[in-house]
Design a protein that fits this description.
Helices cover 0% and strands 49% of the residues. It is mostly beta strands.
Length: 126
C-alpha cells in the first residue's frame, strides 16, 4: 500500500511562486511512477508533470511547460512541484499520484495511477 501526502498550497498572487511537496510511504520512488495532476474548478483533471523512471526524463503538460519544475529527493521519498509565473488559470486542487512503472503513452493518463494523495489547493488571485 502506498500513501501520499501533499503540502504547500495556498493563496498566491498572479506572477508569484509556490512549491508543492508530496511524501510517499510504503514503497520507494524508484519503484513508482510519480506524477502531478490538477482538478480545475470546472472539475476537469489535467496532467501537470511526471518523471519517467525508465528514461529518467520529466514530462510536462503544455499549459505549465516552462513555468513549473518537477523534482524529486529519493532519500526523502519526496517529489516536488515548483510553480512559478502563476496565472489565475492555474487555480486548482493539485494531486500527487503514484502508479507502477509504465510506458510513455500511459504517463499522462490519470486512470493509470492507483494511489492518490488528498490534494492541496492552489488559488491564484490578487
Amino acid at each position: 500500500q502506498v500513501q501520499l501526502v501533499e503540502s504547500g498550497g495556498g493563496l498566491v498572487q498572479p506572477g508569484g511562486s509556490v512549491r508543492l511537496s508530496c511524501v510517499a510511504s510504503g514503497r520507494t520512488l524508484n519503484s513508482l511512477t510519480m506524477a502531478w495532476f490538477r482538478q480545475t474548478p470546472e472539475n476537469e483533471r489535467e496532467f501537470v508533470a511526471v518523471f519517467h523512471n525508465n528514461n529518467r526524463r520529466t514530462y510536462y503538460g503544455d499549459s505549465v511547460k516552462g513555468r513549473f519544475t518537477y523534482s524529486r529527493d529519493s532519500a526523502a521519498n519526496t517529489v516536488y512541484l515548483q510553480m512559478s509565473s502563476l496565472k489565475p488559470e492555474d487555480t486548482a486542487r493539485y494531486f500527487c499520484a503514484a502508479g507502477p512503472n509504465m510506458i510513455l503513452r500511459s504517463l499522462r493518463d490519470w486512470q493509470r495511477y492507483s494511489y492518490w494523495g488528498q490534494g492541496t489547493q492552489v488559488t491564484v488571485s490578487s
